[in-house]
């Protein structure tokens, strides 16, 4: 029975699956909360400027406080004015400190829960389930890998967004101001051990602490067997079955990118692989990083492996082949060629009247290949040319980046234009497919009825009863066409594969009958046959409208890696809106494409029916909304600039036409130039308005702009 109990790992009654699903759902929610809170760190905890240090230096402590709390408190009690300040500071900050403490506590609780789950699996608490059987199940394997990866991401996000010193000061303040001091059962000690400063600083040019982040990752021990089994799965399997969405071998590293990012994070839990296991590292680089080295690890947090793997001998050696300048040159030149080719293609497809239903249905593979090429090229170029992923003081990284910029003939405006066109193309395709899927069955049944009726009518023609000119009675043909009509009627929509096969055979039969029985000479008979074949062809087309196409477009169109990088294109977006207002409609598609990045953190939260769904989706949607606002504020600016110009033209330049005038003066009053200007500006304003209205109607699903 063990195989049948594993069938639905995510079923509500599968305790083993529900437990790990809850952990992973919680992990995604914790990261959102950490990102949200990192924007609300009270500035004083940074003690950056002299004034803060002088005023608060005596009441804000780092972990050295725990060496002698009495001494520190004694100093305070000696000065009444310090006590007052301390009390006021407590009142102002206890709320936000509590929120930070709860977030930190949830990180610690997360790893405790994960370890407990692994112990339970080990001890046979879940009937017939072991670590091995869970890893054999598709969902189980994904969830176990995600669980460890999310813990790593939490630790990295904390260090990147909330500096070590600041964390320590906040934890000590919380300890001093809350009841945690008196309650013995608080796990504050463990939380402090996990989150004490690592010495890491996200400031540009800061030196990386030794053994970072692996020593930080090992602060709470995790089963070595579990870690090595997860790494094994990530090395060998395509755990998300992404390769089927990217059949071309040159897209393989993009297909496996999500998994590659997970592997990158999880390897820090077993640094011996990075340091000394050369064969494994070579295999990992060959499979995941043969043609890319800048990766996005979670919601657009990017890492440059050339820098990240510098301290590890095996990893660095393996990556050297990828970073060899001749390989860099080859990749960059390849993307230069691809970009040029596909951009022309997409612009062709976007021409008015090009994406019609028949054309789309006959060219699905071609359209999808074009989309894959576009998205893979945009991804590679955006990640590998980003400023944030290249430390300007690192000579080698700078050299690699210059090489890319030269050989890919990089032009940020062109890349952005390709992103816009691709987003628009995807949007149109998705909308068409949704529409076609909803009408699919009705249309199919319609074509079937039409085709069958044509055959019945043709059978009647050969009965000799119908007065159709010069067709001799032919009982064989009459019976044959009746049979075909029956066959067409018997096609079953539910069994699409068989129906498709049979339809093809019917088309062939109709072509053959025309040749064998010399029916070409009668135009009306030929017309009946041609019509029926056309309907049968339409049936095949219609049955080929499959949900898979939408799913592939969704997978291939992922833009989550640009969640932060997109900001570097803001000024380009605004300039292009200024120049051509109709850009707004394409931008709408781009924002929607960006919004699909929310699927990633929300998927598990949704599957677990977790109450966190609302707050997490609100956080990311809120981020997206404020970004969209930032870009779109250019529209009111541009609109008012145009309005002012119109007012100026109408009040100063355009002369009122008197009620009577000599016709030779007509030309002076016509003022074609200024009037044309007014018309042009008015047109621009109306397009802006239209664009904003379109934004309003599309983005409401996710967010209210």
Structure description:
With 705 residues, the protein is an all-alpha fold. Among the domains are: 19-201, no CATH class; 611-704, no CATH class. It is 70% helix and 1% strand. The protein has helices spanning 2-5, 15-37, 50-56, 69-77, 80-122, 131-136, 138-161, 164-177, 188-195, 214-217, 224-236, 252-255, 257-267, 271-276, 278-288, 305-308, 313-323, 325-350, 357-362, 364-385, 395-407, 412-461, 475-490, 496-516, 523-543, 547-556, 570-579, 583-595, 599-607, 612-632, 634-653, 666-670, 672-699; strands at residues 294-298, 301-304. Strands 1-2 form a two-stranded antiparallel sheet. The chain is globular and about 120 Å long. Residues 1-6 have low confidence and may be disordered.
SSE topology sketch:
Blueprint: H1 2-5, H2 15-37, H3 50-56, H4 69-77, H5 80-122, H6 131-136, H7 138-161, H8 164-177, H9 188-195, H10 214-217, H11 224-236, H12 252-255, H13 257-267, H14 271-276, H15 278-288, E1 294-298, E2 301-304, H16 305-308, H17 313-323, H18 325-350, H19 357-362, H20 364-385, H21 395-407, H22 412-461, H23 475-490, H24 496-516, H25 523-543, H26 547-556, H27 570-579, H28 583-595, H29 599-607, H30 612-632, H31 634-653, H32 666-670, H33 672-699
Antiparallel strand pairs: 1-2
Helix pairs in contact: 2-5, 2-7, 2-29, 2-30, 5-7, 5-8, 5-9, 7-11, 7-13, 11-13, 15-17, 18-20, 18-21, 18-22, 20-22, 20-26, 22-23, 22-25, 22-26, 22-28, 24-25, 28-33, 29-30, 31-33
